[in-house]
UniProtKB/TrEMBL annotation:
Keywords: Cell projection, Cytoplasm, Cytoskeleton, Repeat. It is found in: Cytoplasm, Cytoskeleton, Cilium axoneme. The lineage of its organism: Eukaryota, Metazoa, Chordata, Craniata, Vertebrata. Its main location: cytoplasm. Residues 75-182, 226-364, 426-533 form the DM10 domain. GO terms for cellular component: axoneme; microtubule. This is EF-hand domain-containing family member C2. It comes from Cyprinus carpio (Common carp). Microtubule inner protein (MIP) part of the dynein-decorated doublet microtubules (DMTs) in cilia axoneme, which is required for motile cilia beating. GO terms for biological process: regulation of neuron projection development. Gene3D superfamilies: 2.30.29.170, EF-hand. SMART domains: DM10.
Amino acid sequence: MALPMLPGNSVNRNLGKEKFHKSQHFDYSNGVAMMVGSEKPGIGGELLLGQSARPKYSLFPKGEGSNAPAWVAFDKQVLCFDAYFQEAVPQRREEKYRVRKCKIYFYLEDDTIQVVEPELKNSGIPQGTLIRRHRIPLPAPKDDCFYNVHHFNINQEIVFYNRTFMITDCDPFTRNFLIKMGVRLIPPASTPADPYATHRQEMEENMKPLRPYERIDTLKQFLEHDRKVLRFYCYWNDTESMFGDSRELILHYFLADDTMEIYEVVLPNSGRDAVPKFLHRGKLPKHAPIPKHQPGEITDRTVLNVFGPVGQGGRYILDSLKVIEEEFHKDCDLTIGGVINVWGRRVIICDCDNFTKEYYRSKYGIEDFTPVSYQASFPPKPARQVPPYTGFGSEEDSLCSCQGLLPKPPQKDFKKLMEKDRQGLVSNVLRFVAKMLTDSPVDKERVFIIYFYLSDDTIAVFEPPQRNSGVIGGKFLKRGQVKKPGQELFKSEMSEYFTAQDLYVGARLDLNNQPFQLLDADEFTFSYMEQHADEVTHKNHSLFCIYSKKILHRNFIEIPSLIAQAFCNGCVLHRTLLAEMDVQLSEHEIIRLGRNYSLREQPEVDLSLVLAVAQDQLKKKNFENFTDMIRAFTHEDRDRSGHLSSKEAQIIFKAFRLPLSDDLQRALLEKFQDESEKIDYHAFLSNINWRENPAPAVLPDVTVKVSLKAVWMTLKKTVHFFYQQTHILRRHSLTFAKAATCT
């Protein structure tokens, strides 16, 4: 009974179908174009009546194995079978057929097969890959299907393209895989012998000598000691021959192949040609000279006797006991103090390098590497007599003309020039105030500035102009090195020049027969001489020793009374104390003590006085760019707060070239700074504007006096210092006494 046409039931099979194409009837099979329409499915890829689907890969029962695709589950898994095939050889008399062994590889991921024949030496036939990797079809009439894993087993024949292969065995992985698949393996079979291979093996065995060759393996020695060379310093005494002399040699021993080479040390002006090598690299025989040998006479293997026919069937005996062997020098023969024979020349080994010492210490345990002295001590080189100075040019220039045929300019101390030359704001120039030592009343009042340049030890003297003095100021002495007085002019030795150690406050200088007395120095000079006391101070090492020697013999209870007496008399404190202690110090050392141990307090400076001085300098330079400076300050003030830092203000001052000294600028900026160290630039520019807000005139003799409080604080500071020194000196009296004895 037919089913009723209920909802959801339909006889139309095309419902839900998406493919309606017709399969093509033409394709390539083994590279040949042919019509394969009968094997193609029908409309939409559905099989026609009577057709069966061609399997693309090996099929396994559903539910067994992994669900992953074959190219993932069997990746890098290959079955390997041992096989052979017979090949007829009708052209040769020695053989009728040939047995060729091969390997069959079956790739499980895509059922492809590859056949490879191992290459044999001197086979004369092309070997290697016989069948490249691809899917191999079954023999006809089933050539539409391909080989799969079920077609393989041991001890059975398999046909690939009309060539029959006999599978004899397989590897352990293949055996385990087939057993797990349920394949019943047949016991392995043996491969038949190849007649021609057996014949060739017999021939090769007959060609081998009864006593095999001695194996000489030099590769290991080369790999272990490649580029390792022992270096020896040698000596050859050739004074017995005519016109012979002593030779210095350098011997190189190459550990890679036990060879030697020798170089000769050719000294300058020795009269000998600089040949490339004294001895070429090679093995050095111990007993030389020896008779010359014909080419091929000396080989690695020595033949003692030859008998029998020449060629096949002859026999020869090798010298395995080393009956005839030539001895060569080895590394064990080279020792310091030893003598080696270099082709009839006695060469003495005198010394070696550090690598050679370490090699012999580690290999042979040698510890004594005392070098052998082979050179006589040369007499001291006589000093070159330099002719006296002629008076033309400088002494250095005249000396350079005597040192060579081609005169060269004198060399300067370039390192000192680079270290002591001007670096930024550091001038490296010592400035002293000096007066002329003379009986002339006019010259006594003249003031000079002496410049000492540390870069080249040159001196320049300038005289500042003084009003109504009658003397024109300016350059008094051109910059250059100045000789010390009391030296002979025409002499062979170099003259002594004034150095930094000769310049200090209180020193007397005779500059070109004109005496000067150094009275004072600037702040940079004092600071530099204190920081570099070992370079410029003339009594740096004995100063504190003398000072401690005098203090050890003083009664320190009298120091407060001396301070009070010195204060009442209005004298300088440390000068009075040094005078009481009878310590002979120079003026510069006294100033240094005062700078080191005095309490320096800057007195409060009046703002009106500083503004008056600043306006006076601006008025003299006719500086009126205050409006432009307001714009520059406003531009830099990003927050429009009316305040800027002192560093930014100084940059603007440099941009407008404000004609005020650095000290005066710092004093003004400190007066207008607030708690955050910023200045009110509107108030600052308004106060220094001499056009709108003029300040009262400044008198020439206005000075800032130190208050009594500052003097009393200085006294208290000095008293505290002396009490500290008293405690230290009492504990270390022995040390100070030794230091005083040294001076």
